[in-house]
Amino acid sequence: MKDLEKKILSAGQVLPGNILLVDSFLNQGLDVELIDAMAETWYRYFESEPITKVMTIEASGIAIAALVAKKFSVPALFAKKYDTLNLTSDRHQSSVYSYTKKKEYTIAVSKRLLTEEDHVLIVDDFLANGCALRGLIDLVESANASIGGVGIAIEKSFQKGPELIRATGVNLCSLAKIASLEDGQIEFAEADA
Amino acid sequence: MKDLEKKILSAGQVLPGNILLVDSFLNQGLDVELIDAMAETWYRYFESEPITKVMTIEASGIAIAALVAKKFSVPALFAKKYDTLNLTSDRHQSSVYSYTKKKEYTIAVSKRLLTEEDHVLIVDDFLANGCALRGLIDLVESANASIGGVGIAIEKSFQKGPELIRATGVNLCSLAKIASLEDGQIEFAEADA
Fold first, then answer.
1. What residues are paired with B167 via a beta bridge?
2. pLDDT in tens, A36-50
């Protein structure tokens, strides 16, 4: 998606360690006009899927999920993160390893809010190692719900997540694909939409 | 706002300790049609204010902020929560006491994203003790920005926050006011819009 790529080039910052900082428009600061245009792009891409819920993980996926859910006229839903969480019978849970924080955490969603009737579109801001996304897919599978697709704003194509997720057969639509951040230069691969 | 009150009555759950659970439509599960109608109500209420940014705190305020910001055609912004955070020169910071978690945490926002040019509409899902809201007001004041108003989905009028905030002269618009949750019964006071 050209508008997203342009925004990444004009407002993104490359930090040491292959980090792309987009806090001025995608997390913390939210360019809602841009996110709404992204939502429209995913809507057209996944329009044929009978989506019943748009799901993400707190916190930076929430604005995206809300604007995408609006396009599909369905509810949004976000998984919560917990440092520690006892197993309870009323929540679907999964463990996620954070490479950024170098620790494992639990994500969970109420069983009342995600059921086998659901056909879910998962959205998130980033896909790098794919740990958070695999956790979300895990929650959907625990609920015996089905996955209509995955919409990612920015995938780091040089990390292992995108390939691992595509290998499972999930329909993944990334709006910007970063091929490389070497020497502080942002290079894109061709996006899915 | 009648539609919000109706939804609270039909889908809210009163738990012991004066807790009103609205996770099926306002936090975790998000009824984006309802939240969009709430956003429209605040837009009409605060229309005369030259709002430049809609600000909230992670996580459950984010969907609200995104949909409100869309109405005003301005960016949204959310403060992040930290268990511990070193003082740094590039962030506005404030301390917030959580009665739910019985501990203090830090909220912060990048100085790049909130400046003295800003006229801010603060929004959040709940107002009870007012600690989180006072933290947000603190951040706006640290930035020498001005406050155009505060939009709250559900205020617990029987707790001290709403009165404290109104006493400061801030223009507070609560869309549902809970007068009492005693004996598991939800009683409303007249809302601001």
1. none
2. 999 999 999 999 999
